[in-house]
Amino acid sequence: DGTNDYVDLGVQSNPATNMTFACWLNPVVSASTSYQTIIDYGKFNVWLEDNDTLVIYTNTSGAAVNYTISDLNNKWSRLVVSVSGTTTSVYIDGTLIAAKTTTALSDSASQSDIGRDGTTRYYEGKLSDLQIYNVAWTQADVTFDYENPQHLVTDNPSIVKTYGSEIVTDGGFDDPSEWSTSTG
């Protein structure tokens, strides 16, 4: 129902010193919304604060970095967060919002969830097509991703990168034994 729902990913660590997180999101946020976590993955954490701020921790031992964004309330938007060393770039609907200096990613393992941070800060809204890559995307990757939602960025023949393998191959979500789900 989009309220206090989450996916428990167990204990995870960031895939590399570079990474990309991408998803379609349709949040319920307002000017007075408290923190709503989109993903908490290892020591990497992304959440919405109010309707015009995206907050990112690339490593919980560093400082959070705020990105001013357009109001995403009740509409589908493609969010891409690309981390390359100590630079984190945020894109919405294929457009670069900002690239800022951040703390380097940590490979320390931690409880990880989609839609909450620990036991609080639940995301309210809808998420779709959530992806995590072990490389930093460039603007060309982001553009291809946004303009070709029916394809993975790895399907672009003009992009020369080495990507890991899919954890769930070609969207094969039909086997419930592959999932551990919980509700708040």
How much strand content do the residues show?
Answer: 35-45%
Helix content: under 10%
Which residues form runs of ≥5 with pLDDT under 50? Answer: none
Cα-atom Rg, whole angstroms?
15 Å
Give the CA-CA distance, first to last residue.
11 Å
Q: Outline, from the CA principal axes?
A: globular
Helical/strand content category: mainly beta
Q: Indicate the mean pLDDT.
A: 86
Strand order of the largest sheet: 6-5-4-3-10-1-12
Largest sheet, in brief, is: 7 strands, antiparallel
Could you explain the architecture of this structure?
The protein is mainly β and 184 residues long. It has 1 helix and 12 strands, in the order βββββββββββαβ. The strands form 2 sheets. Strands 6-5-4-3-10-1-12 form a 7-stranded antiparallel β-sheet, with no helix packed on it.
List the helices and strands and how they pair.
Blueprint: E1 5-12, E2 18-27, E3 36-41, E4 44-49, E5 53-57, E6 65-68, E7 77-84, E8 87-92, E9 95-101, E10 110-114, E11 125-133, H1 139-147, E12 181-183
Summarize this, please?
By secondary structure, the chain is mainly beta. The protein has one helix at 139-147, and strands at residues 5-12, 18-27, 36-41, 44-49, 53-57, 65-68, 77-84, 87-92, 95-101, 110-114, 125-133, 181-183. The strands form 2 sheets. It has a 7-stranded antiparallel beta sheet, with no helix packed on it. A 5-stranded antiparallel beta sheet has the order 9-8-7-2-11.
